[in-house]
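Summary for the steering committee. One of the milestones for this cycle was to obtain a three-dimensional model of the protein with S-adenosylmethionine bound, which we needed before selecting residues for the alanine scan. The sequence and ligand used are listed below.
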Amino acid sequence: MHFIQHKAEARWFYSVVSKGYDRWINPLFWTAPMRDAALELARLDDPALEVVDVGAGTGFATEAIVGAVVPERVTMLDQSPHQLARARRKRSLEAVEKLLGDAEALPFATDSRDRYVSTGSVEYWPDPQRAVAEAYRVLRPGGRALLAGPLRRTHPIARRLSDAWMLFPAEDEYVDWFERAGFERIERVHVAPAWWDEHWDPYAVAIAGVKPRAGEPSLALAPAASGDESGAVTPARLARFAAGSLAGAAFIPVALWFSVRARLRRLRA
Ligand SMILES: C[S@@+](CC[C@H](N)C(=O)[O-])C[C@H]1O[C@@H](n2cnc3c(N)ncnc32)[C@H](O)[C@@H]1O
């Protein structure tokens, strides 16, 4: 189903969600310790690196990137004008270039960046393999790509809801996308918010790889699908958007409950 794994629907989704994104979504689902553990794999070890943050949203990951890299050398790209508008309000991101664009067709030259970062965006991409191939294409040889995203749920109710919402890939799919694109020296780490029980299935993964040589990826991709990404409102699309958004919204009370429970347990311990 993956009702919001579509470009127009994801844009609609973020025209609403951007209002509470920094306040409600990241503190519950994508926390600073998770972000920092994921970004370790990007090896931001030189302030002069040229970095692109794809699906950068309100700039939560970008804020950490500009802690390590000169802001003028960082570019944020997102397809949601609402999310980028929030990023424009942040002083720490003033000097960062902000571009409206699509993860599956990056507006950058081949071999032009040192690092590619994308956190929490893959779940909305209709064709993740195409986007990972784009990550490969825009990197210089020796450049490193980092992709972080959720993992397929195994609890039956969570699986149904997550599948109705968007793409929750299996870990092997992330590895396949990277290997097929041509990345080498692939590394992975699992990340989860503090309320996630360590005995549950892995919550999310960050995966990184290095581009070994200059040029385009060698994998053959089918021509890009010419789906209706115009955003034309039809009853069917509205129904899909509503069903996907409701399924996504169901995760908020669940996460709140586990978050409160984890805090109470820590206080009692
Ligand atoms: C969950 S937010 C993550 C934002 C940010 N990376 C962070 O770490 O907080 C997902 C972002 O991906 C963006 N997005 C979804 N599909 C996209 C696409 N095809 N191209 C570019 N951005 C996309 C959304 O607009 C949204 O801002």
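Key point for the committee: The radius of gyration is 18 Å.
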